[in-house]
Amino acid sequence: MKRIIFFSFLLIAISSVYCQQAKFVVLTVKGSVTLERNNRAYSIKAGNKLYENDKVKLNKKSYLDLVYTDGKTIELKTTGTYPVYKLIKMAKESRTSSSKKFANYVLAQFAKSVDDINNMKVTGSVERLVKPAIDYATPPLTNILDPVVTFNWFSVPSRSYIFSIVNPEGNVAYSQKISDTLITVNLQKLKLKRDNGYKWLVKDASKAKALNDTCRFFWLSQKEAKSIKDTINILMKDWRSYDQSVKQALLASYFFNHKLYVDMLEANKRAMELSPGNDTYKKLYIMALDKAGLKQMAADLDKKPDKMMNLKLNLKGLNMDTGKQKQKK
């Protein structure tokens, strides 16, 4: 009987730890701010999670900006110790103006993504009957915002490739033989039309008949692209006080909503680079790869996080080396 009671108590204790959800995510830290958790003190960084039983201590000339799970933000400027359960009450009682509701929605999504890290499961590549000749490093299905786009893939021994774009009618709109593992094209100069979907693929020039996956992108209309950019400008003004790495992570959440997966990966990558010692951004980047359909890349980095040091970002798109290939600079 005693043994049953003991194990019941143990199960309750374990579930209380693992089922606890983050209540806040840190947006900005200035000065000296510490987190008190389980009788231990930690230095707080942007992107950190706060739980209901935590306490936050602000020293002189310090500042802390937090986002609650519903997207509401709290600024702490006064020296003192703040139990998180009291901050939760403050967040629930605060009112939100209609102009900030959308910004708060994006903030709430970001907070949820950070909390989802606890339950992150990266499954790896989907099994296929026939393995493609070339693996891609650009999301297989994505919306495109601007006319300049970079497509990436992993190298093969021949190091000679044929890159092609196929229009909605099934005709080849562009084809180029190259020796690099990425190509940047201007959709406008190629006279492709906005508000249309296109296919793209890469073949090994020495094995032109080899089977390979066909990917797709949709070039957004001018009207929709302008609307997205205008919204980003509004959001960035609302987030002007936030840590730079947090701004990029928030942008990634916004891009995800619009299926702008290349932009999402860029933003996640920048957040990681701006805060290199923060594991939260590394895990968010792995989650972003998985969401974007690059599951094998996500699985590789999840197993060997040290390969993060080998990631390379091309500002027109994702350029990544996970150790399987060597890419030209």
Put simply, the count of helices is 8
Query: Which ranges are low-confidence, i.e. pLDDT below 50, for 5 or more consecutive residues?
Result: 2-19, 125-130, 309-329
Q: Please, what is the average pLDDT? A: 79
Could you say what the CATH architecture of the largest domain is? Sandwich
SSE pattern, N- to C-terminal: HEEEEEEEEHHEEEEEEEHHHHHEE
Shape: elongated
Count the beta strands: 17
**Biggest sheet character:** 5 strands, mixed
Structural class: alpha+beta
CATH class of the largest domain: Mainly Beta
Query: What is Rg?
Result: 23 Å
Give the proportion of residues in helices: 25-40%
Chain oligomer state:
single chain
Strand sequence of the main sheet, in spatial order? 9-15-14-11-12
CATH superfamily of the largest domain: Macroglobulin (MG2) domain
What is the domain total for the residues?
2
Amino-to-carboxy terminus distance: 67 Å
Estimated share of beta-strand residues: 25-35%
Q: Could you characterize the architecture of this molecule?
A:
- There is one protein chain.
- 33% of the residues lie in helices and 26% in strands.
- By secondary structure, it is α+β, with helices and mostly antiparallel strands.
- The chain folds into two domains: 22-96, no CATH class; 120-329, Immunoglobulin-like.
- It has a five-stranded mixed beta sheet with strand order 9-15-14-11-12, with no helix packed on it.
- β11 and β12 (172-178) form a beta hairpin.
- α6 packs antiparallel against α7 (279-291).
- The chain is elongated, with a radius of gyration of 23 Å.
- 34% of the residues are buried.
- Residues 2-19, 125-130 and 309-329 have low confidence and may be disordered.
